[in-house]
Amino acid sequence: MEHFTRPTRNLALELVRVTEAAALAAGRYMGRGDKIAADQAAVNAMRLVLNSVQMDGIIIIGEGEKDEAPMLYNGERLGTGEEPEVDIAIDPIDGTRPLAFGLPGAISTVALAPRGSMFNPGPIVYMHKIAVGPSARGAIDINAPVGVNLHNIARAKGVDIDDLVVVILDRPRHEQLIADVRRCGARISLIHDGDVAGALMTADPDSNIDVLMGIGGTPEGVLAACALRAAGGEMQGKLFARNEDEYKRGRDAGYDFDKVLMIEDLVSSDDVFFAATGLTGGQLLKGVTYFADGARTESLVMRGLTGTVRRIMATHSLKKLDVVSSIQY
Fold first, then answer.
1. Residues 6+ apart with CB under 8 A from 227
2. Under 8 Å CB-to-CB from 106, ≥6 apart: which residues?
């Protein structure tokens, strides 16, 4: 009799309930100018649903330390307390400013991986990043000049450099990077916030984004690494200190600012799960739309072990949710 291995649980299909809940709760604040209220709504919904998932989870990438509660804080334990033991990375709203001002690109994200497999950035807030999708895997080197990386990415994808689109956070610190990319002839898509979504777009076959470059948040870097590892992409990073004091504190804590963090350093297991739900419409995901007694969401769901990427369109009955949930949608 042939033996079949029983599949492990696809926690990503449970995580999408988490990001959908956060998006439904926070989506009401689109354009209302209140980032704090929007974030709190997303946090409350995310915590409620995460605590219903059968897992013993610890937040590695959260919204700060315990004294900042009721935000989802680093070290917080979530889930039912049963196996599996997992690390959690969350960003209830990747792009609070776009949500608060009704701009595109805000998403809600969460990732899980086996306990001890996620990189913990501690107090280091920023990192240099370069990220690509599966078609350019093996073609990047964060220490190489911009032109070399663009040449290698173009060659891997079978296109010319002027066919490429580089997504970059629109920040003064990127003036030289933007000038270098323009000099090479590649095109640029500047984003105001949300470089998790920017990294994800490099692995989306329906996106025109080929590579993410620049300095962004370290927590967002770990989240993006989880998604790209699941999708078969690649990411490299180097920790970035904003000043001498931050550099000294990081070195004293044992962090190496010269080390290239490969995707395997940022998340060391293939058994990774990722979910994201759109808040405001953008290139990656449609935003939440509300109608009489209901709402619609679009989500991405990824499982690294199988390489499965799902795009889920969901219709929610808010009238029924109000009966069974303590969250105001």
1. 109, 111, 196, 199, 200, 203, 233, 274, 276, 300, 302
2. 93, 94, 95, 96, 98, 99, 193, 194, 278, 279, 280, 282, 287
Query: At a CB cut-off of 8 Å and minimum separation 6, what does 264 contact?
Result: none
What is the Cα Rg of the chain in Å?
19
Token couple for 112: 């899980």
Q: Tell me how far CA of residue 70 lies from CA of 43, 65, 67, 262, 318, in angstroms.
A: 8, 10, 8, 33, 25
Could you give the CA distance from residue 57 to residue 21 in angstroms, rounded to a whole number?
19
**Which residues of the chain carry a pLDDT beneath 50?**
1-7
Task: Give the pLDDT score at 1.
Answer: 42
Instruction: Please tell me the predicted confidence (pLDDT) of residue 123.
Output: 85
Give SS3 for 251.
helix
Question: Residue 180's pLDDT is what?
Answer: 98
The pLDDT of residue 70: 59
Helix pair angle (12-26, 35-50), 10° resolution:
150
pTM flag (> 0.90): yes
The torsion defined by the Cα of 15, 18, 24 and 27, in degrees rounded to 10, comes to -90
What tokens were used for 215?
Answer: 């300095």
